Amino acid sequence: MSLGRLVSGCGLVALLAAAPALQAGPGADGSAQGRIHGTVTTHAGSRYTGLIRWGGQEAFWDDLFQSAKLDLPFPAYAEPVEEPVESDWWWQEIGRRLLREVKPGPRRVFAARFGDIARLEVVGGNAAVVTMRSGTSCRVSGYADDVGATLTVTDETEGETAIEWGRVDVVELSPAPAGAVFAGHRLHGTVDAGSRRFTGFIQWDEDEGLSTDRLDGDSEDGRVSIPFGAVAAIEQRSATSARVELADGRALVLDGTNDVNAENRGILVEDPRYGRVRVPWRCFRRIELARPDGSGPGYAEFPKPVRLQGAVTTTDGAAHVGRIHWDLDASESWELLEGVSDGLQFSIPFARVSSLERDGSATIVTLTDGEQLRFDDAEAAAGRPVGVVVEPDGGGEAFLPWPRVRRIDLAW
Q1: 95: helix, coil or strand?
Q2: Model confidence over 131-142: pLDDT tens digits?
Q3: pLDDT at site 79
């Protein structure tokens, strides 16, 4: 008998009927410490306070808010916008094209963990001002669907409210109250990516991150939609299908949707060693899910941001010491260093980075715990950096093009 028929006919109906019950019972609710929480004020003056799910995807403080920066601190050094190039990373190509639609001229992607954001003010149909907890602000627009998203707020008194972007005035973020819970729990597991393994909180297909979210696919007996809380493991069978093992011991093979084939946008893992790791389907082998202890770091657990300081050594041995602006615009510890290693994309907060050193066509990244990663410049998520600007304590600035940079040592 095929695996697809292990859950067949009436068995499929029974599985779907029983699925909600798998979330019920004592301890079924998860602690909301790690959930995004705040107050949404609308243009009409209404205020909604509670847990926030951003666009039906991001729900936790270490999830990323992404858009495009409208202003650069050193635009004179920025390279012209490049024309599209062929790439195996389809999401990179989409990002490049969307960036071109914001406005002409140089620009950069804005990416920040929700836990590093204090406030967001909508200033146009597709634009906002994001104020960080450090006090710095950034105008953003477009690039990703986080700007323009519908915000779902679970208000303690009014229940769940979906607020369209066009109605939003201001979002002010704050810790969830003590004792707050949410239905189900956050997805957590271990991902086998072939040469590497990662353990942490999960977003499947860059989307599903809760046990109440659903894994969709076609079995031999028809379309199924299974809550992730009922899934024990998922294993890639081919570019077009996956074997799904259920918590009750049953298994089935699914295909036909981007949850279980190469159209999957990637499995995101919040590995505490690095930050966020994106595992594309071609690298994905297997994931084993397990209920976590908690829902991730709370708002108060995100460290106070500091400016990037250190020394940049050039290829001729000269040292430039002072405030560092990586790739012209990353200037604080909350900002993300992005790169690709062994086909896996890493998004690492600069607070976890000790040094970067060029090695031919690659960059050796040494983390604060001593671990090293080798980023391939040719595959870098945002392309090879333009260069580094250093502002010495005595004033002035020095622009160092990337080919002239040999090593960067950050001072913490």
Answers
A1: helix
A2: 999 999 999 998
A3: 64
